[in-house]
Write a structure and sequence with these properties.
The structure holds two protein chains of two kinds. Chain A is 76% helix and 0% strand. By secondary structure, chain A is mainly α. In chain A, α3 runs parallel beside α8, α3 crosses α12 and α8 runs antiparallel to α13. The two termini of chain A are 18 Å apart. Chain B is 69% helix and 3% strand. In chain B, 53% of the residues are buried. Classes of the chains: A mainly alpha, B mainly alpha. The interface between A and B is large, with 50 and 48 residues.
Amino acid sequence: MERMPKWADVILTPLISLVLAFAISALVILAIGESPAEALKVMVQGALGSSYGWGFTLYYTTNFVFTGLAVMVAYHAGLFNIGGEGQAAMGGLGVALVVLALPWPHWALALPAAAMGAALFGALWALVPAWLQARRGSHIVITTIMFNFIAAAALNYMLVNVLRPVGSMDPASARFPEAAHLPKLSEMALGLGVEWGRNTPANVTFFLAIAACLLVWLLIWRTRLGYEIRAFGKSEPAALYAGISPVRITVLAMLVSGALAGLMAVNNVMGEAERLVLNAVEGAGFIGIAVALMGRNHPLGVLLAALLFGFLYQGGGELALWTSIPRELIVVIQALVILFTGALDNMVRMPLERLFAALRRKGA
Amino acid sequence: MDFATLIQILDSAVRLMTPLLLACLAGLYSERAGVFDIGLEGKMLMAAFASASVAYATGSAWLGLLAGIAGAAAMAGLHGVASIGFRGNQLISGVAINFLASGLTVLLGQKIFGLGGRTPSLSGAARFGEITLPFADSLRPVPVIGPIYAELVSGHTVLVYVAFAMVPLTWWVLYRTRFGLRLRAVGENPASVDTAGVSVVRLRFAAVMICGVLCGIAGAYLATGISAGFVKEMTAGRGFIALAALIFAKWRPWGALGATFLFGLLEAVANRFPNLDLGFVTVPSMFMNALPYILTVVILAGFVGRAIPPRAGGEPYVKER
């Protein structure tokens, strides 16, 4: 396993993959007759050039941290959870049910309750695929894909037939009560006397996301369960031999993963929309795959990758606004990042390993 | 429900199942050779866009079909390079392909046509027309058989008949040819195929490319057969329903025919009766739409007949040295 120094494995390989992905994205921009440099300028200015841009970038980042962590935890157990989209959608249902159920006096009470609801619904939505994988041997990738579609249909049904207020045509829930309004980062800044990011959706959930990164790190690398998850993910027979129950680990890892994906709903449903709408997740569940891959399945990496994708998302919106490049450019970049850091990993890794082997021979 | 309505629903089911059937058979070749493919959706989408664009530019649906096949085959080639050549994760590669197609089609469509990702609508020879089979009109007055022949069997585009013909052809290729035997073997135990002196890489690449061609036909049918032009995200999850059908069919060609017919029928019924009233309970259309996925989960769970995937599926083959 000592083929490469650690820094090359952790930093150099993803960096080269990223450069490749962006180089090809630049070619795509050239191919549609636009200037990559100009596009980058618009994106950086729009996403990072003002507190307004940052307010959106951090909002998207918060979403992607949760879905990225969700993919990451499952990945450590050797499970590919592509169901983040459905789990986050179900988390939204949990948030809406909790917030609309009681007359919350203050957001500080509503937030933990809503977070519990989100995590619970997300986790339950991951439980069935997990159990089926562990007990019945059905492939988790396929079942989680199916559960994404089932979640979409279930949510559609709930919004149209159950949660829609009387007299409303919109397939959406009622507005959340004013008291459950989560403070925006801009309002918190104003409380400190700083004018920052007015009218942006970034909210207090951002700190929840940071805390989640820390907790996931603790879970995976500092607890017995985390050790068992990693052992199971590295080698199932070895884990079994060591007395680790595959069923238990599969189910627990997926419960944590689903809960994390569900927690995203605190940000987008409670923090931003303040009501549950159709397709509230908007693909963030899938971006979690790219974020986890790029972040090398480490919470710090996930945070940085989520920030990058937050920047891309906000920048992409600005692109669509100021240039003739459609928003979908971001989807292409996302695809290329997944392709290079995920599927074509060996393309970058194998030459690098050879290079380092050659260097070592020369040094020895 | 009268007989005419029944015929109409069945007719609609045949139209709706065609892209599913083609994509399902496409996935069958790939997965039987041990290469998982969750990128069926992306390949179909790419093909739909390519075929609609070229059909619009040239006015020929057939050239559009070729372009669609080329577009899907390019995506399949990428999947092959990543998952066979570089032994990457097949699932991740499939996810990437879905996103790539989803983004590129809109990006290119906006650049070329400037209609927000749509292509202009197609008419005349740029679409596949409906074929009236011989005697369809003269047989129409015959009770029962007449309408079935004239409405249900006749009056589809050529791609529908191609899709149905692919079922026995696929069966024959898989179970009656040397290529098919090797293809199935490489999905179960690639080492044995390698030992026999047959290239695992070449076989798997062939399977993946066949998958691309079939996805190409499926996409072309969506854009130039069933509808008149490409619309953003027009596959709308059909690639995943095809994947579900493949599991439902237990990776067998005739099963694929049955599974895709069932799923096409569900869609046709959901379209026809948005809220199906069964007397004692009203079934919402959302449930009908979700039913293929629910059924697949049930089948996967092994409660109703077990679906066992090819053994070597998803694992890159590393040749021993």
